[in-house]
Write a structure and sequence with these properties.
This protein is an alpha+beta fold and 73 residues long. The chain has one domain. 66% of the residues lie in helices and 14% in strands. Strands 1-2 form a two-stranded parallel ribbon. The longest helix has 22 residues.
Length: 73
């Protein structure tokens, strides 16, 4: 069941990141301190969301499609 949930999350990240990159010329994301958030009571939610994997997908898809991608402090 864990693998199934991970596959669904990865599939959602791929679909969402592709849609975002196709619809926009430039994408800016906040550079979250995930390690800092991992020590709060939101730790489970932050780690479950897979933010770093999603940002990585946005980054390589932006380069692939010739879009602007940047992280903002």
């Amino acid at each position: 069941q864990h693998a199934r949930v991970a596959d669904r999350r990865r599939d959602f990240h791929h679909k969402a990141s592709t849609q975002i990159i196709r619809d926009n010329q430039a994408v800016y994301v906040e550079d979250l301190a995930v390690s800092g958030l991992g020590r709060t009571r939101l730790a489970k939610s932050v780690h479950d969301a897979g933010w770093s994997a999603f940002v990585g997908m946005l980054q390589y898809k932006a380069a692939l499609h010739g879009r602007t991608f940047a992280k903002v402090d």
